[in-house]
Amino acid sequence: MTDPLPAPAGLLDALAAIVGEAHLVRDPGAMAPFLADWRGRFTGRARAVVLPFDTAEVAQVVAVCARARVPIVPQGGRTGLVLGSVPDAGGAAIVLSLRRLNRIRAVDAANRTMTVEAGCILADVQQAAFEAGMLFPLSLAAEGSCTIGGNLSTNAGGTAVLRYGNTRELCLGLEVVTADGRVWDGLRGLRKDNTGYALRELFIGAEGTLGVITAAVLKLFPQPKAALTALVALASPREALALLNLMQERCGAALTGYELMSDFCLRLVATHFPKLPRPFATHYPQYALVELSSLESEDHAAEMVETSVGAALDAGIALDAVLATSTSQALGLWQLREHIPLAQATAGKNIKHDISLPVSSIPAFIERTDAALQAAFPGCQVVCFGHLGDGNLHYNVAPPDGIGHDSFLSHQEGVNRIVHDSVASFHGSISAEHGIGALKREDLVRYKPPVELDMMRAIKAALDPLGIMNPGKIL
Ligand SMILES: Cc1cc2nc3c(=O)[nH]c(=O)nc-3n(C[C@H](O)[C@H](O)[C@H](O)COP(=O)(O)OP(=O)(O)OC[C@H]3O[C@@H](n4cnc5c(N)ncnc54)[C@H](O)[C@@H]3O)c2cc1C
After folding, report:
1. Is the CB of 216 under 6 A from ligand 1?
2. DSSP-H helix ranges across 273-408
3. Closest Cα to atom 8, ligand 1: which residue?
4. Could you give the residue ranges of the DSSP H alpha helices within 132-190?
5. How many CB atoms are located within 10 Å of the residue 271 CB?
6. Residue 69, exposed/middle/buried by CB under 10 A (0-12, 13-18, 19+)?
7. What does the alpha-carbon distance between residue 12 and residue 21 come to, in Å, rounded to a whole number?
8. 183: left (phi over 0), alpha (psi -120 to 50) or beta
């Protein structure tokens, strides 16, 4: 392990005086878990890891670092997938972990909001909402580890975006420590507030490059009385789109999830997780995992699923369907979806893309991009799945049979270019959910219009003139 850089004189002692020696990690061995990327691709270096207790301590830490011109890397659960929450290899930064800011400050049932600190684990926020008789709908596979501050800073999506929106849509107010160490109390639970620039929106999705989010006012929703899941077999992504439109017309806001999975994805899951259910006796080219929620009753949800899926079968849009009749069956169907990334990881490394497109363009995008990849890398295998209802695909490329996964990674640049050029030709985005971090900076410059980049740089310069907030990320 490489030793951290020597700190500017007195910096670490000043930080220890703020948070207490027990909450300043200086030892390289103890720092290690805070420096490693979730996927194990990279380990950075830092002068120290500091764990403040509350907003006042965060503000003092930032002020001390600003005076010493020391870069700060805000960190939540470290589950981000684009190297945003780990420091670079230079070793000049301190990691600011929000882990101890983990209090639910208030629940306002009549306003349907809750105020939580940034270090609260997402699953704990969901549980607190549940105990108050309400729903906080953000849900993703990392929910047992990721924090609400990280979710806000990456504007996380997840499985319920179709009905409830991204994290941005779930937030009404923020408390932020600015890059010079002042506290902005924007913890307003207002649904209408037209008093100038929407500063809250700047910090959401900023990946810690503009300031430190310390608390947020989140929206709560009524708890559904029932949720029903179905898996529908389809001939192609075109039928998946037709089914989505049919379900939206018939079920409206009751449609809470709509995931696309190719047969290749499910074969991969069956190979690596043979104990998971196999809902159909035969294989079909594509599948849609559909979830409907009802505020009324289970019968109401069942009736909506049965009539809409029945109509799709009658119209020849769907080829076959299974409806989960118990919670464990529904769980089994969702496990198929959730095990796709795990099955891919077991099979070996592949070239990943987290992209979004206008929903209407998805079938054409898949056809055109599959063909371009086959022309350039014959036999390559596309693992395509994702949140079709949100226009968000995980479009990953694995090597042809017989070619090693590691050696195929040497084609990463060529594969990325084909996929991202295709995304751009459909006016899509090269990062739907995961952000830019340190991983996609070059792609950002390639695909964002220069005028948009200039405005982003101007905002960064205005809010963080010393450039100490998570440098090297996004811009
Ligand atoms: C298994 C798995 C499944 C996932 N599924 C999804 C999914 O379905 N949808 C999706 O959108 N994402 C998904 N992700 C990625 C997603 O971005 C993160 O899980 C989550 O939003 C990050 O939260 P975190 O607390 O771990 O943040 P971290 O990884 O710690 O940080 C992420 C970024 O936010 C910044 N940051 C963190 N906290 C703060 C703060 N308080 N103030 C300012 N900046 C801060 C960091 O500097 C970094 O740039 C998944 C990740 C994993 C590992």
Report:
1. no
2. 298-314, 327-347, 362-376, 405-408
3. 158
4. 148-154, 161-164
5. 11
6. exposed
7. 9
8. beta
Question: 80 CB under 6 A from ligand 1?
Answer: yes
Q: Answer yes or no: pTM beyond 0.90.
A: yes
Q: How far is CA 266 from CA 56, 159, 314, 320, in A?
A: 49, 18, 25, 16
Structure-token pair, residue 26: 């200086």
Residues 6+ apart with CB under 8 A from 327: none
Tell me how far apart the alpha carbons of residues 4 and 92 are, in angstroms, rounded to a whole number.
8
Within 13 Å of residue 181, how many CA atoms lie on the same side as its CB?
17
Single-letter code of the amino acid located at 10: G
Regarding the beta carbon of 237 and ligand 1, being less than 6 Å apart is answered: no
Across the chain, which has 475 residues, the per-10-residue mean pLDDT values are 71 97 96 93 95 98 97 98 96 97 97 98 98 96 96 94 96 98 98 95 98 98 94 98 97 94 96 95 97 92 93 97 92 94 91 96 97 97 94 96 91 97 98 96 96 98 98 97
